[in-house]
Specification:
With 354 residues, the chain is mainly alpha-helical. The chain has helices spanning 4-22, 26-32, 34-43, 60-65, 80-95, 101-111, 119-131, 133-138, 159-162, 165-169, 175-186, 193-207, 214-222, 230-241, 247-254, 263-276, 281-290, 295-307, 315-318, 337-353, and strands spanning 324-329, 332-336.
């Protein structure tokens, strides 16, 4: 498995860098589509995308993502993708393998600002606020079925998938354990393919350190989701397009009827980029972000999984944010990369011992 601490460092670095790459163009991609995203990158001289996004004044990118643009980026700016990774670390520090969905719910109410949630998470949060204030306040067991929180129209969107990465990082060689942890987290807000996507991401992350190749890790992770699910079909489509420069276009066309924030289409882009650019970090995160849909989520997931291979993240990607990781969680503001790596390693050793 190589040096575990080095893999965890690269996973954090890759996830943060990929997230910050995709963050400036997220709103543009989701609201205006792939053509608008490509137009912006082309006008900025940023195609192929192999560095942080350039800033063009007076644009949507300037309005919503200026702080993450090339030459402006000084720290990892707060983002839900990183919030949830840190929150998963906090959950495992407190509960370990005994983690339950009820623990996730309590952590949300204690740590996660409602305004920092979106789609399925915001809907689930609303249900918690409406029905769970008494059991939360007194530390009792929930007085209602938490599965009610997942009864929302976004339950198969990408939210649980972006919360799953760290469960894989801390379970190297144990994809079934990682997938199970991801399902417990995902169950609070998602069902069906929303849960399967989370389980797959966690499982492939756990499989990578012990697998002979990324392809082998993907195959192993497929065993953790139903073979007849749309999630499994998306992974198989992505595998068939690995190495095809137009693979992202094939995937977008196949899933043209889905929301750009759905789990299935975004997961297909993630697997395609990971398998297509396994030896080039900049190409892996650059191409998945340039492919559109949910750009910061996909950049983060590809970046983290790529880092688990044990290959170093190139310095130009990590130097701009200087080990500074900002979050928007109650009681936390800015964390240090070194501390996150140390704490993640401690959780990994604790789980291995269990």
């Amino acid at each position: 498995m190589g040096d575990l601490r080095d893999r965890l460092r690269a996973a954090w670095q890759g996830r943060i860098s990929g997230c910050q790459l995709g963050k400036p163009v997220e709103v543009l991609s989701i609201t205006q589509g792939h053509a608008a995203l490509t137009g912006y990158l082309a006008s900025a001289g940023a195609l192929p995308l192999r560095d942080y996004v350039p800033l063009v004044e007076g644009t949507v990118v300037d309005k919503f993502g200026r702080a993450c643009c090339r030459g402006v980026l000084e720290r990892s700016e707060p983002d839900d993708d990183i919030n949830y990774t840190v929150l998963a670390l906090l959950l495992l520090e407190e509960h370990g393998l005994a983690l339950r969905t009820a623990d996730v719910a309590r952590a949300w109410l204690r740590r996660l600002p409602a305004a920092a949630t979106f789609t399925a998470e915001r809907a689930a949060y609303r249900t918690l606020l409406e029905r769970a204030h008494e059991w939360f306040a007194f530390g009792a067991e929930p007085g209602f079925d938490l599965a009610d929180c997942a009864n929302n129209e976004y339950r198969e969107w990408i939210g649980a998938q972006i919360r799953a990465d760290l469960y894989g990082w801390v379970c190297p060689g144990q994809p079934a354990v990682a997938a199970d942890l991801a399902r417990r987290d995902a169950a609070l807000s998602h069902r069906g393919d929303g849960v399967h996507g989370a389980a797959f991401v966690a499982a492939v992350g756990a499989a990578i350190p012990a697998a002979s190749s990324l392809e082998a890790a993907v195959e192993e992770a497929l065993h953790e989701i139903p073979s007849d699910s749309a999630t499994a079909a998306a992974v198989r489509l992505a595998r068939s397009q690995a190495g095809n420069a137009n693979g992202a276009g094939v995937i977008r066309e196949r899933y043209a009827d889905l929301s750009p924030i759905h789990a299935v289409n975004n997961l297909a882009l993630v697997v395609w980029a990971l398998l297509s650019y396994r030896d080039d970090f900049g190409a892996a995160v650059g191409e998945v972000v340039a492919a559109g849909l949910d750009t910061d989520c996909n950049g983060a997931t590809v970046g983290g999984l790529w880092g688990l291979q044990g290959k170093p993240i190139p310095e130009p990607w990590i130097t701009p944010w200087r080990g500074r990781v900002a979050v928007s969680l109650a009681g936390l503001d800015e964390l240090r990369l070194d501390d996150l790596v140390r704490r993640t390693h401690a959780v990994t050793e604790r789980i291995a011992g269990a």
